[in-house]
Design goal:
The protein is mainly α and 127 residues long. The protein is built from four helices and no strands. Helix 1 crosses helix 2. The radius of gyration is 18 Å and the shape is globular. The protein binds adenosine-5'-triphosphate. Belongs to the bacterial diacylglycerol kinase family. GO terms for molecular function: ATP binding; kinase activity; metal ion binding. This is Diacylglycerol kinase family protein.
């Protein structure tokens, strides 16, 4: 294990800027490799564009931004869990399936919630 007696990782960054760079690397990797993330980004661009056109209120913008940010964040966590599972085993294992499916379930629930938020905000304006 790459940890000392304090549980610190020997790869741990001591530099805040470098930590941000690693986070951006993680986001970029997910954007390049995960189809779901690419779909989220495409939909988010359209949603933000429509939000500007429809001149949302500040509260409506907050809901939209939390919906978009939450979906991105959960997709990143979901991808991280997929990577860890694949690191641990390439063989079929029921716990590997549970871990991946539960993480996917979390992302799915937030996506559904975001769609509902979108319907509540946009539908009355469009009708
Ligand atoms: N090692 C494994 N053991 C058992 N089941 C697995 C294992 N790896 C993946 N699975 C299952 O196979 C299915 C497909 O998994 P996969 O890793 O391709 O992710 P996914 O659900 O297609 O997500 P994404 O499209 O985001 O990559 C899921 O139900 C997952 O739980």
């Amino acid at each position: 294990m790459n940890t000392d007696y304090n549980g610190k990782n020997k790869f741990k960054s001591s530099n805040v800027i470098r930590s941000f760079q690693y986070a951006i690397q993680g986001i970029t990797h997910t954007l390049m490799k995960e189809r779901n993330m690419q779909i989220h980004v495409s939909i988010s661009v359209i949603v933000v564009f429509v939000s500007f056109i429809l001149k949302l209120s500040a509260i409506e913008w907050l809901f939209i931004l939390f919906a978009i940010g939450g979906v991105f964040a959960l997709e990143l966590v979901n991808t991280a869990i997929e990577r860890i599972v694949d690191l641990v085993t390439k063989e079929y294992h029921p716990l590997a399936k549970q871990a991946k499916d539960i993480a996917a379930g979390a992302a799915f629930i937030y996506s559904i919630l975001s769609v509902i938020v979108g319907i509540i905000i946009f539908l009355p304006k469009i009708l």
